[in-house]
């Protein structure tokens, strides 16, 4: 892991609301390739004594500056440390962008649900879709009150500039109460043919997802982004056990359009095997607590040792976390989409 760590300098700190700020990083030319990213991805930062994942609110077409947006939480040691201590010129250890919360096509019609700081990856998707795509974009954005709305001025400006393609529907708890399934279902009803992306606190995403399910939106067209606090330190190298490696399964893996075949030791996690073989398999936390290493089982079966991010529906569709998967069958075929 340590060879992937980069030290970046904070170029600017932007106060977004009373409890949220954006950190803008200058990416030097020598790190430009490592920090190429897709809209909706995140960075993993060393925030004081802890590691935390924060979504990029910038868009790839905005140049060499990357921006994350951080919102304070009551017990958020990472977010509070960043908001209290980071200034222009602060140097922070960062892992390259990761994550799969990104549209395959920005010409699709998009229905975006965000609550609070969940707007961060959604904003990156939204900006890219409007500036580079051709589809319609509808955003449902929930906050406590008007003062809590992150990127309010930018969203209003996009509404004026792309009036024929973009609509934002603000939901303020101070006015409308908490979002519920019935009312979110009514808001989403005209857009059931759109591709949906959801990000925010778990209760909000559960409610929004239920609304879309009741409208009959196919599971494959509903994408969720959620994070939990990392328990370990992904900035430190890990040592994996090597016992039992004489017993192997046969692995075929398709990565970046190329198929590879390897013997897969029964006690070896898939991600560790692929990295050992020199493949550029995506990952971030290595703890089963983010979706950066997600891949799909095409044939065979694996066991996930830990999983704090995938839903039962994801697993039923064959999605697994490479960093936590060991083989159960004698042959396993895997693809990265």
UniProtKB/TrEMBL annotation:
SUPFAM superfamilies: 2Fe-2S ferredoxin-like, Ferredoxin reductase-like, C-terminal NADP-linked domain, Riboflavin synthase domain-like. InterPro entries: 2Fe-2S_ferredoxin-like_sf, 2Fe-2S_ferredoxin-type, 2Fe2S_fd_BS, Beta-grasp_dom_sf, Cbr1-like_FAD-bd_dom, FAD-bd_FR_type, Flavoprot_Pyr_Nucl_cyt_Rdtase, FNR_nucleotide-bd. One of its GO terms (molecular function) is metal ion binding. Residues 249-337 form the 2Fe-2S ferredoxin-type domain. It comes from the Bacteria. Residues 3-104 form the FAD-binding FR-type domain. This is Oxidoreductase. Keywords: 2Fe-2S, FAD, Flavoprotein, Iron, Iron-sulfur, Metal-binding, Oxidoreductase. Its cofactor is FAD. Pfam families: FAD_binding_6, Fer2, NAD_binding_1.
């Amino acid at each position: 892991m340590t060879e992937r760590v980069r030290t970046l300098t904070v170029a600017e700190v932007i106060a977004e609301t009373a409890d949220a700020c954006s950190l803008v990083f200058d990416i030097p030319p020598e790190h430009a390739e490592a920090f190429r990213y897709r809209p909706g991805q995140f960075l993993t930062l060393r925030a004081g004594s802890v590691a935390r994942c924060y979504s990029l609110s910038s868009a790839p077409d905005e140049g060499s500056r990357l921006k994350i947006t951080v919102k304070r939480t009551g017990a958020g040691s990472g977010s509070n440390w960043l908001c209290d201590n980071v200034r222009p010129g602060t140097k922070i250890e960062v892992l390259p962008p990761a994550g799969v919360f990104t549209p395959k096509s920005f010409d699709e019609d998009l229905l975006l649900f965000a609550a609070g700081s969940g707007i961060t990856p959604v904003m990156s998707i939204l900006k890219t879709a409007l500036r580079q795509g051709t589809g319609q974009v509808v955003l449902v954005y929930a906050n406590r009150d008007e003062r809590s709305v992150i990127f309010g001025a930018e969203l209003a400006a996009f509404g004026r500039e792309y009036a024929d393609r973009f609509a934002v529907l603000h939901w303020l708890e101070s006015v409308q109460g908490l979002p519920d399934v019935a009312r979110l279902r009514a808001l989403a009803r005209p857009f059931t043919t759109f591709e949906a992306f959801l990000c925010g606190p778990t209760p909000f995403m559960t409610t929004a997802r239920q609304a879309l399910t009741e409208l009959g939106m196919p599971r494959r067209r509903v994408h969720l982004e959620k994070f939990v606090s990392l328990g370990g330190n992904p900035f430190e190298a890990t040592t994996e056990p090597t016992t039992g490696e004489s017993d192997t399964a046969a692995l075929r893996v398709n990565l970046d359009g190329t198929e590879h075949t390897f013997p897969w030791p029964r006690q070896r996690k898939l991600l560790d095997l692929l990295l050992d073989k020199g493949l550029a398999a995506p990952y971030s936390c290595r703890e089963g607590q983010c979706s950066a290493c997600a891949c799909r089982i095409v044939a065979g079966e694996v066991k996930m040792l830990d999983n704090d991010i995938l839903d039962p529906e994801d697993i039923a569709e064959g999605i697994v976390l490479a960093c936590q998967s060991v083989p159960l069958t004698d042959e396993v075929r895997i693809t990265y989409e």
